[in-house]
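Tutorial, part two.
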Amino acid sequence: MQVGAQDKVYSTTDGKISFVSEAPLETITASSKKMEGLVDAEALTFGFSVAIRTFEGFNNGLQRQHFYENYMETDKYPAATFSGKIIEHIDLTKAGTYSVRAKGQLNIHGHVKERIIKVELVSTGKEVKISTLFYVPLADHQIEVPRIVNQKIAQDIEVSIQATLQLTGRP
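Running the prediction step on this input gives:
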């Protein structure tokens, strides 16, 4: 991500990202508190990343292992990323609540899909709280589910993100 020359960069190393797979025979939930991200308030650009192996939860250890190895193939694709630009012109250095659209490249499982995601931002000027909920179709990222477990894994995964980014100046 390119960052502007101004000292208006917000960052986090402990954002929370969670997902829910609600299928007819099983509900699977997992989360990570290790999402990293930057927002350049001047250029209105952003970049977020989470290491797949930081997800915890699941219903059991075997399910977690299958998620890492069979579905997400973490040896080949260790992270998921989303980077791009905030569509609306806002001033995050001024306190306020902003409903914006983040347009960018969502890279999961090595497959990139352009997405526009609605995000709520609450700024105090020194920190920005981010909150969003969106769905990721497995087919968009070529994540294949074997027929035998088709009723246990949803085709559209609910993803939620909450993070507090601190004003850090230049990265």
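The beta strands are 9-22, 27-40, 45-51, 56-57, 79-86, 96-108, 111-123, 127-137, 156-167. In part three we will examine how such features are distributed along the chain.
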